[in-house]
Amino acid sequence: MPTPSVEPRKSVTRSRWWVALLFLLPALVLLGALVVYPIGYSIWRSLYDADGSGFVGLDNYVDIFTTDSTLTAVRNTAIWVAVAPAVVTALGLIFAVLTERVRWGTAFKLVVFMPMAISMLAAGIIFRLVYEQDPSQGAANAVAKSIHDTFVSSSVYPKARPNATASDLKPSGGGSFTTTGTVKAGTPALLPLVGIAPNKLPGSPENAKAASGSGVTGTVWLDFKLGGGGTKGKVDTGEKALKGVKVEAVKDGKVVASAKSGADGTFSLPQDADGARLRLPGSNFAAAYGGIDWLGPTLVTPSIIASYVWMWAGFAMVLIAAGLAGVDRNLLEAARVDGANEWQVFRRITVPMLAPVLVVVLVTLMINVMKVFDLVYIIAPQPSQDEANVLALQLFLSSFGGGGNYGVGSAIGVILLLLVLPVMYVNIRRLRKERQR
Length: 437
Known about the structure:
The chain has 437 residues and is an alpha+beta fold. It is 49% helix and 10% strand.
């Protein structure tokens, strides 16, 4: 008896294509309204002038690559794409691997991931304060000043200067001052300084005292007191001593002896100083270390990239840690049994097995940094904002930030789209290959 033939069942979507279209219609409408139409309108608008009344063709694109501000934006965007994703991915990989080996790894991951909960606006405000030039306000310069002062002694009296009318101390180069006459044993040298208010002296200074003795001695003091009075160039009652001032005895251009003034301002030099000139080195009056100009033209872009790394390192760490959890531990143990050290295991097994995850993180961050706008706009001060400019910020400034040129703004938007497309193409190819495995 012949077997009856069974006709293949037709799916509803094939027999009734309009059913599938009906289900897809809401998504297609949203896609067209929110993606296709804005892209098409931006391309069309980029071919017109600032107010959209005149067709200019590709002139707006020419302006982008001939104007200094947009060229700076293109250069800085390239720096962001090349540096920020790579640094964030590398830090995320290091954190993910190391936290697997410590007991408090979960707590560490929580701390590193917490910045992701902060908006770009809030992070920008935080780092604008961190990078303040004044060490008393900016955390970065407070740390830099502490490290600097640990290895380099700072001046105690940066604004002090000799009393020109009552002293023979004269400028001698490098911020130092040298007497025109020589010092003699038994005749105390008087080195009066001014330029500092008595109530602004550090610590609790003692009253100055006139030096005495048969050796080479002298006094360094503030030749001024509140309320006035006294004789210029003479140690008067109530005038304050300047403690810790370095005094050098110079003969024939060479330092033969040196000393520092005591709490009462007096100093004593060896007998070798007899007949020498006295010099107050510039180190006594050097301005206090003011820290690093983090937001100046030179360092503003690296500083902003550092704030971005702080925010997104947790994102990379979490994704890589998830991929690391799926790595076959037997492979790692087998490599260790065969004699591989931890660096070899990491470089030849862990990293290759995490390659798909690392690519995902890297591609995602590359797309993300092309849209960076908030951090640059908030952190970079107005004087150095041009040096920190990126394409997304330039788009805003050209269109809405006072430029009023929607043609150039649309052209920058189209260029950003063209820059993202190759990255998206690589990402789509990677996803297709993953499906085929």
